[in-house]
Structure formats: structure tokens, C-alpha cells
Write a structure and sequence with these properties.
The complex is a heterodimer of chains A (866) and B (79). With 866 residues, chain A is of the alpha+beta class. Among the domains of chain A are: 81-195, no CATH class; 310-471, Barwin-like endoglucanases (Beta Barrel), CATH 2.40.40; 487-623, RNA polymerase Rpb1, domain 3 (Enzyme I, Chain A, domain 2, Orthogonal Bundle); 629-800, Topoisomerase I, Chain A, domain 4 (Orthogonal Bundle), CATH 1.10.132.30. In chain A, 36% of the residues lie in helices and 13% in strands. Chain A contains 26 helices and 28 strands. In chain A, the strands form nine sheets. Chain A has a six-stranded mixed β-sheet. A four-stranded antiparallel β-sheet of chain A has the order 10-13-11-12. In chain A, a hairpin with a 5-residue loop joins strand 25 and strand 26 (831-832). In chain A, helix 12 (347-355) runs antiparallel to helix 13, helix 16 crosses helix 21 (602-623) and helix 20 (591-600) packs antiparallel against helix 21. The model of chain A is unreliable at 704-710 and 856-866 (pLDDT under 50). Chain B is of the alpha+beta class. Chain B has one domain: Alpha-Beta Complex (Eukaryotic RPB6 RNA polymerase subunit), CATH 3.90.940.20. In chain B, 29% of the residues lie in helices and 32% in strands. Chain B is built from three helices and four strands. Chain B has helices at 4-9, 21-31, 46-51; strands at residues 15-18, 40-42, 58-65, 69-78. Chain B has a four-stranded mixed β-sheet. In chain B, a hairpin with a 3-residue loop joins strand 3 and strand 4 (69-78). Chain B is globular, with a radius of gyration of 13 Å. The N and C termini of chain B lie far apart (26 Å). The model of chain B has no long low-confidence stretch (mean pLDDT 90). Classes of the chains: A alpha+beta (866), B alpha+beta (79). The A-B interface holds A 828, 830, 835-842, 844-848 and B 31, 33, 36-39, 63, 65, 67-68, 71-74.
Chain lengths: 866, 79
């Protein structure tokens, strides 16, 4: 991206009608386009002097032919001036700032002089001038009374009640002196305000608005041509009426019509006027519409480029693929090719591929002179015969080829990763679900793109830098992003629970699955512990200790003897204690996975993930995980306890309500009385929910209170999922089993609804806990009608907020990443912009790449012994 | 009234120093850039005003950093 020439400045200005006439190759006078023979009419919109779009004709301006003539502009002479919609607002501002009589700025001379001095240091003072001018009602220069100027979008102006027409506006603008213009922020050399009012309309070359010939031989004109025809027709009618001395009213009507056509020619979506339509009822696509928005010239054609050697289809999960692999349908693989240079070493293999009659075929062969030959049934033998060193064979994609796989929106680096191809008989791309979080993909109809790198350099680069296994750790938080969630976490937990042991047959089944050929010695008498089986997938040399999600943060850690099996200890790649849960293998947490990647290597981490996936999914599949409504049964003692706590909280709230009503409630600093009242109640209910969660947790994870040898015995399906981090959490369990708590809308108690109450069942002015949206039931008991409504209010808002915030933050992120897209870290550690300007002297002040960093602030401390 | 001294010694204002011609020259060599390619600091920036700096001079800014201890940054005074 070397900059060879430096742009010193760019100047934007307006185009005067004089410039339009100078630029024009033809004055267009007739709205007709072609004569009966289909030949362009002279002086028409398809005049041969405007450029050539039909083969065989010559351009009368430059003599070029269809491919060589770039096209030339023409113009239409407008009988009456017309406002350019794009500048209507600017016109309005200038009209307001200047006198209707003498066209001087509505400020006394000395003020103007002082602003002129200011102009020396500052470029733009127009805002301040305009703010001052607003209040003036009498011209300080000619004493003319100033009437209020009104702007009626998109192009109508009134002075007081009188309509002012473009001709008059133009006269006023012409009278403004150059000095006054510079104070208003204009450079009169490049832009005079009267140029915003058109007297001549530039007609774009025919090459910009080519007509297309349909199969039936009927010509179909471009939308812009249609619009120009409208302008010409009205222009002509206006001429005729003026010449015939028609009444002013009729002339003004036609003038307005001309204005309408020219406005819609520039922008067919300007507010306040109906869009011009095609005969079919479709709105015309005029100048602004060609450029604007997602499908406009900028975003669609200039920023958006299309590529070859790419495929797109629906994606599906396949947990028996490795994380490095991607399943590619045979039909796609037949289409996508990889170029292979012919050498003495591979000529025989390639010849075979060229000769193949089925799938791994060659699609094209390129000769050293760059001639591309298609390999077909008829040509393949001749081509195979001809093949020699220096030829390039474009062979179809086969297993093991490196491909790039991508899901939009591509928000971060792991939105596009390299995979190894695995050709499948399916119709969808498939990949391991462990990679889903990285792409943010699910399988409810998501489609993804696939690209085949075409050079050896690109292939190697993809393999070394972009391969999934090298992306396991996110550089954003230095922890795994390609990690287990849901099923594999639950399965891994089931397998490694302290109580789990397996018979020899089971152990052999699992070992076979993960490619272990010889079983270790059984560690539980005749049987094998789940921990031992799990240990088989660990790479050698792992020594690590950390605490999993069941840790209760006891004052003195009992380590290996933890009653919750929360202390994970791996000694020489043998899982000694602790159950494997999301803190070992989960996204953003996975300490074990993190350590394997950073201490052993990417390949081993990938291998671990691949085998863990197979193992834990199979365990889950064989053992099953059942969720039942009885998972949420609480013991009578706990039920009583929760009831009591709820009662206490309600008493507390009642006290707050009483204080509030009597006016003795103390306000919280910085809040109104009402806000404080709400806040106090929310504090009480929040505290209650937390307390109940503690009790419910104790009750549902019954194993917790039992001794170490019965660890995890009585745990239920729901508790397994919440406890291991596979799905759901304590709050969800509490909502089901015990109490929903306070419903909140806008971070406060629900307020809107009827006068003085949210629901009509309550009395006016009822601010008690129940009327304020406190839900004392859980889903298992069932909510009362009012509770249900309150809960729905909160849930609805949550849903709305979710969609709004993802939309808004998505757009913010898009703008940020677009702004930063070519800022990069160079080899010397400096951060540079595209042109090589320094942005930072050391990347991130410290030059640290977070991907290689152990999270220093990690809550779950870990000591890795080397 | 707040003096230039006060401003420069304020806890939230990192250390700014004006570099000599030679220092700038060696920096240009170190980074392989032209003088225009330094990040900019406005001529009317309070620190620049307090230091009584001229347009085109380069400032060395030494900041405290949580991760790096101290970090050095350079900015060219520009209009």
C-alpha cells in the first residue's frame, strides 16, 4: 500500500450552469429517443454524440466505438430555474441569513467586520454568524423589514405567506457579495450559492444509462432516461405555455411539475413528495438510489467484491469430524478446484486424475502458454497424453485439502478459519459443534461460505496461521474460544464423577473410541474409574491443579479430599481428583484446555478436544441425562425455610411501604423519594432471591452435604447441567423450584398501566409488594394471574432490549472495525496505519499478545508445575 | 489561577518532554518514518500551550501503564 503521490488537498465545489453548458456535447431538445428504424434521434436522449451503446455505430463526439467511447454528457436548457433538492437546506440557511431586499448579511457593518477578522484564524465561523442572525427582523443596511422564511420540504419556500419561486431566490443569491459569502462559510470561487439553482440540467452519457433490448426485440430504457424524458416533456410544455401567454397559474403549475421531475431525478426517496413510479408501479431508481445504501454503488460494487473458487450452503453439525475438518458435499467438491503444477514427481498421478471418469477428476488443464483447456469426456485422453512438466492441472477438491471456512458477519478473526476438507455424500457443509461459538453458528438454517486457496503460499499460510487448532485460544481474553459446551460438558462430568466406575467391557468400548489400544491397569479392584478413562485422552506431561465449579471456597482447602470433588488435580497426565466441568474444558474458562494448548501445543490441544468430544458425547449417549419435574422438588424443611424468608421480606417491604406512606422513609442520596422507595424494595427482593438461591442450591445439589465417598451420588439431571456448566444456572433452578422474585421493567418495579396501579385489579395507589410486581411463586407451583402478567412484562422488555442492543451495538462495532480495518502491527512491534503512519510505538503499550498470555486476573487460580 | 507548572505536575497529566533535533532524527531512523508520520498533538492542547511548544516539534510522553509499567509515546505538535 505504498503511497507514491501525496494528496495535498481535495476541493469540493458546485457546478454552475455555465460549466454544465461547457461540459455538454449536445443540447437535448426532444423527448424522443429512437426513430422507426431504431436509430438514435439527433437532439434526443440517445443522440450519438452522447456516446455509443449499440455495436456498429460511431460516436459523433470522439469517433470511438462501443468499447472505446467513454460517453459524453449533454444538457437540457430549462426555461425556468429549478432548485436542486440536495441543496435545498443550504438555500434555506442562506436565505435566512441575508436580507430579502439587498441580499446583505443581516448584521451591522461593524459586526461583519469583526467576524471578518476572526476569519483570519478560523476557517469556519458560519455557525456563530447564523446563530446571531436568527433574531434580526430588520435589515441593518437597507432598513427593509424581514419576513420569516419558511422551508417546506423538499423544495418549496415561503416568505411570510407568499410563495417565493426559484427565479426570485436565484436573483437574491446572485446579489450576495463574495465577502459576505466567505463569512457564511462559502468559497465563492468554487461555489456560488446561485449555482444551487439549476438553469441547465446535465444529462449523463448514454453509457451511464444503457437501454436493454428484450428477447421480444422491444427496447427497455433505463430509469434515468425515463426521468429525463419526463423533464424534457414538461420543459417543452412550459415553453409552449409561456410563448402562448398562458395565465400565471398554469405556468406555475407546470413549473412545479418540472421541479418535481428534477427533484425525483436526483432523489426519488426525498420526504414530502410521492416517488416517481414506473408504469408497473415500481419506484424509479434515480441518481441518489444508485449510490445510496447497501445495494448502492459504494457498498455493493466498490466495497463488495465477489470471488471465484468459493461455495455456500447450509451447515449441519457432525461431532465425529475433528475440529480441524469440514465436511464438503461431493457436488461442491466437484466444482471447486485446486491448481497443481505438473512435475516429474507427480505427472503420473495427475495423468491418472485427468483420465478419471468419476469424482476426483480434473476440470481444467492450463498449458505453459496460459491456454486453459476444459477436460471433458472427449478431450481427456488427448490432454492426458499431452501433459508434461510446466502444465497446471486444476484438479477437484479432495480430502485433506486446505480450505477457508467463514460465517458472516465476520466480526473477529475466528469468523474465518482454515479447515481440512472431508468430502461427504451430504448436501450441506458440516463441522464439529465445538467450533460453533467461534463462528457464532447454529444449525437452524445458517449458511456458510467456503473458499479454496489457489497458491501454495496461500495454502501454507492458511494451514500455519488460520487452521482451527491454532485458533483455540481467543486473543481477546486469552482463554479457549473453541471449547466444549452443553452436551460434551455434561458428558465429561458424568464420566469423571468420583462415584463413576466401569466394567472392563465398558472401559474397552470407550478406549477403542478414543484410539487407545491397551487398557491401563484397573484402579478400582476389577473396575475402572471414569477418571482413569478420561486420563487416557490427556497428552503426556500434564501437571495441573485447579478448582472446578463445585468449589465452595472453604477457608482451608481440603485439596484431593474435597467433599464436592471440586479440586481437580492432574499428576503426570492422570486425573487424580476432581470432576471435569466447564472450568476444565469450557469456553472462556477451560483451564485444562488452556494449559494443554500453551504448555504442550496446538496439535495436542486439538487431539484432546477431538477425543474428548467423542468420549464425552458417547458417555452421555450411553448413560443418558434425564430432566424431570421432580428435579425441582424441595424438601419440606427447605420449603418451610423459603416460605419464612419470603414472609420476612414481605414484612420488610410492608414496613418500607408504611414508612413511605407516612413520609418517614429515608431517601437514598441522589434519588427522589419514589426512586428511593423502589430501590429499597428492589434491594430487599434481590437479597431474598440470593438467599433462596443458596438454599435451593444446597437442596438440589444434595450430594454437597454428604461425605466424600458418596460424592455426586444423588445429583439430578437438572443439577448436573447447572452444576457442570453445561446449561442453566442456579437462578434458573430457583425460578423453577422456589420463587421468581421481583419482576423488573426498566430496572425498577413495573409502573405503567392504569392510573395509580399497574393492573386494574389493584386499588388506586396500591404500592405493596404484590401490586409492585413481586412474584412469590416459582414455575413449579405456578404463578398467579397477576404474577404471570408482571413476569411477562419483564420478559417482554428483556426480549426487546436484547434485539435493540444487538442491532445498535452491531452497527457501532461495524463502524469501529471498518475504521480500524487496515491498522496493523508490523514486524518491529509498532502499530501502523495503511500509509505507514505510526499509531502506537509498541503494540498496546506493552507489546503483549494476549493469546500467549495466562490470565493474570483469573478468579480460579491455577498452579502449573513444570 | 492554574499555572503551567500546576498543569504539568498534575497527577493525571503524564510527563511531556520536548525532544531535541538530534533525538527526533534518531527516532525517525529507528522507526523508518518521516516526521509527518508521528501521531499528532494539537497546538492548542493545554499541555502544548503550557510547555510553550512550536509547531513541528516532537514530544516524548512517558505514561504509566498497568501492564508495561512505563510506556513511551511520541507526538508531533501540529496545527
Amino acid at each position: 500500500m505504498a503511497v507514491r503521490k501525496k494528496i495535498k488537498s481535495v476541493n469540493f465545489g458546485l457546478m454552475s450552469s455555465e460549466m454544465v453548458r461547457k461540459l455538454s456535447a449536445v443540447k437535448i431538445i426532444t423527448p424522443d429517443t429512437y426513430d422507426e428504424d431504431g436509430y438514435p434521434i439527433e437532439g434526443g436522449l440517445m443522440d450519438t454524440r452522447l456516446g455509443i451503446i449499440d455495436p456498429g455505430l460511431h460516436c459523433k463526439t470522439c469517433g470511438g466505438r462501443m468499447k472505446t467511447c467513454p460517453g459524453h454528457s449533454g444538457h437540457i436548457e430549462l426555461v425556468r430555474p429549478v432548485i436542486h433538492v440536495g441543496y435545498a437546506k443550504k438555500i434555506y440557511v442562506i436565505l435566512k441569513a441575508t436580507c430579502s431586499g439587498c441580499s446583505k448579511i443581516l448584521l451591522p457593518d461593524e459586526k461583519i467586520a469583526s467576524y471578518k477578522e476572526l476569519l483570519e484564524d478560523e476557517r469556519d465561523i458560519s455557525d456563530r454568524v447564523l446563530a446571531k442572525v436568527k433574531k434580526v427582523s430588520k435589515c441593518p443596511h437597507c432598513n427593509a423589514e424581514q419576513e420569516d422564511i419558511k422551508f417546506d420540504k423538499p423544495h418549496t419556500f415561503f416568505e411570510g405567506k407568499r410563495r417565493i419561486y426559484p427565479a426570485e431566490i436565484r436573483e437574491r443569491l446572485e446579489r450576495i457579495s463574495d465577502d459576505d459569502l466567505s463569512i457564511l462559510g462559502w468559497n465563492p470561487v468554487f461555489a456560488r450559492p446561485e449555482w444551487m439553482i439549476l438553469t441547465a440540467l446535465l444529462v449523463p452519457p448514454v453509457t451511464v444509462r444503457p437501454s436493454i433490448t428484450l428477447e421480444s426485440g422491444v427496447r427497455s430504457e433505463d430509469d434515468l432516461t425515463h426521468k429525463m424524458v419526463d423533464v424534457l416533456r414538461i420543459n417543452q410544455r412550459l415553453v409552449e405555455n409561456i410563448d402562448a401567454g398562458a395565465p400565471q397559474l398554469i405556468i406555475e403549475d407546470l413549473w412545479d411539475l418540472l421541479q418535481y421531475h428534477i427533484t425525483t431525478y436526483f432523489d426519488n426517496e426525498s420526504s414530502g413528495i410521492p416517488p416517481a413510479r414506473h408504469r408497473s408501479g415500481r419506484a424509479l431508481k434515480t441518481v441518489a438510489q444508485r449510490l445510496k445504501g447497501k445495494e448502492g454503488r459504494f457498498r455493493y460494487n466498490l466495497t463488495g467484491k465477489r470471488v471465484n473458487f468459493a461455495g455456500r450452503t447450509v451447515v449441519s453439525p457432525d461431532c465425529f469430524l475433528g475440529i480441524n475438518q469440514v465436511g464438503i458435499p461431493e457436488r461442491v467438491a466437484e466444482e471447486l478446484t485446486v491448481p497443481v503444477g505438473v512435475t516429474e514427481h507427480n505427472i503420473d498421478v495427475l495423468r491418472e486424475i485427468v483420465l478419471n471418469e468419476e469424482y476426483p477428476k480434473a476440470n481444467y488443464v492450463i498449458r505453459p502458454d496460459k491456454l486453459k483447456k476444459k477436460v471433458t469426456e472427449l478431450t481427456r485422453e488427448a490432454i492426458a497424453e499431452e501433459l508434461e512438466e510446466g502444465y497446471v492441472v486444476e484438479r477437484q477438491l479432495v480430502e485433506g485439502d486446505i480450505v477457508l471456512f467463514n460465517r458472516q458477519p465476520s466480526l473477529h478473526r475466528v469468523s474465518m478459519m482454515a479447515h481440512e476438507a472431508k468430502v461427504t455424500p451430504n448436501k450441506t457443509f458440516s463441522f464439529n459443534t465445538l467450533v460453533c461459538p467461534a463462528y457464532n453458528a447454529d444449525f437452524d438454517g445458517d449458511e456458510m461460505n467456503l473458499h479454496v486457496p489457489q497458491t501454495v503460499e496461500a495454502q501454507v499460510e492458511a494451514r500455519e496461521l488460520l487452521l482451527v487448532e491454532n485458533q483455540i485460544i481467543s486473543p481477546r481474553y486469552g482463554r479457549p474460544i473453541i471449547a466444549a459446551d452443553e452436551d460434551p460438558v455434561a458428558g465429561g462430568f458424568l464420566l469423571t464423577r468420583a462415584v463413576k466406575e466401569y466394567t472392563k467391557e465398558e472401559a474397552m468400548h470407550y478406549s477403542f473410541l478414543i484410539g487407545v489400544k491397551s487398557l491401563p491397569k484397573p484402579d478400582r479392584g476389577e473396575k475402572y474409574s471414569g477418571k482413569l478413562i478420561f486420563s487416557q485422552i490427556l497428552p503426556p506431561g500434564i501437571n495441573i491443579e485447579f478448582k472446578n465449579g463445585f468449589c465452595e471456597k472453604c477457608e482451608e482447602c481440603k485439596k484431593e479430599n474435597c467433599k464436592n470433588d471440586a479440586f481437580v488435580s492432574i499428576k503426570d497426565s492422570l486425573l487424580v481428583s476432581g470432576a471435569i466441568d466447564e472450568y476444565a474444558v469450557g469456553e472462556r474458562k477451560g483451564v485444562l484446555l488452556d494449559s494443554i494448548f500453551k504448555y504442550i501445543g496446538a496439535k495436542e490441544a486439538r487431539d484432546f478436544l477431538d477425543r474428548f468430544m467423542k468420549l464425552s458425547n458417547t458417555v452421555l449417549f450411553r448413560e443418558g441425562l434425564t430432566v424431570s419435574s421432580s428435579d425441582y422438588d424441595l424438601s419440606d424443611r427447605i420449603k418451610e425455610e423459603v416460605k419464612q424468608m419470603t414472609q420476612d421480606s414481605e414484612d420488610e417491604i410492608n414496613q418500607i411501604v408504611a414508612d413511605y406512606k407516612s413520609g418517614t422513609m429515608e431517601s437514598i442520596p441522589g434519588m427522589t423519594e419514589e426512586e428511593s422507595f423502589d430501590m429499597r424494595i428492589l434491594n430487599v427482593t434481590g437479597l431474598l432471591k440470593k438467599k433462596v438461591e443458596g438454599f435451593v442450591g444446597d437442596s438440589l445439589f444434595t450430594f454437597k452435604s454428604e461425605s466424600a465417598d458418596s460424592v455426586h451420588k444423588a445429583i439430578t439431571g437438572s443439577a448436573i447441567m447447572a452444576g457442570s456448566g453445561a446449561r442453566a444456572n442456579i437462578t434458573n433452578l430457583t425460578n423453577n423450584a422456589a420463587i421468581w422474585g421481583q419482576a423488573t421493567v426498566n430496572e425498577g418495579r413495573p409502573k405503567r398501566g392504569y392510573i395509580g396501579r399497574v393492573l386494574p385489579i389493584f386499588e388506586v395507589g396500591d404500592v405493596s409488594s404484590r401490586a409492585g410486581g413481586f412474584i412469590e411463586n416459582g414455575f413449579k407451583q405456578g404463578l398467579t394471574t397477576q404474577e404471570f402478567f408482571f413476569q411477562a412484562m419483564g420478559a417482554r422488555q428483556g426480549e426487546v432490549d436484547k434485539s435493540v442492543s444487538t442491532q445498535e451495538s452491531g452497527y457501532l462495532y461495524r463502524r469501529l472495525s471498518n475504521a480500524l480495518q487496515d491498522v496493523l502491527v508490523k514486524d518491529d512491534g509498532t502499530v501502523r496505519s495503511a500509509s505507514g503512519d505510526l499509531v502506537q510505538m509498541v503494540y498496546g503499550e506493552d507489546g503483549i499478545f494476549p493469546m500467549n498470555l495466562f490470565d493474570a486476573k483469573n478468579l480460579y487460580e491455577q498452579q502449573v508445575k513444570k | 489561577m492554574e499555572t503551567a507548572e500546576d498543569l504539568l505536575n498534575h497527577v493525571l497529566v503524564p510527563k511531556h518532554e520536548i525532544l531535541s533535533e538530534e533525538e527526533v532524527e534518531s527516532l525517525l531512523k529507528e522507526f523508518g518514518i518521516k516526521k509527518e508520520q508521528f501521531p499528532l498533538i494539537k497546538l492548542n492542547d493545554p499541555v502544548v500551550v503550557a510547555l510553550d511548544t512550536e509547531e513541528g516539534q516532537v514530544l516524548r510522553i512517558t505514561r504509566k501503564s498497568i501492564t508495561a509499567g512505563e510506556s513511551v509515546y511520541y507526538r508531533r505538535v501540529a496545527r
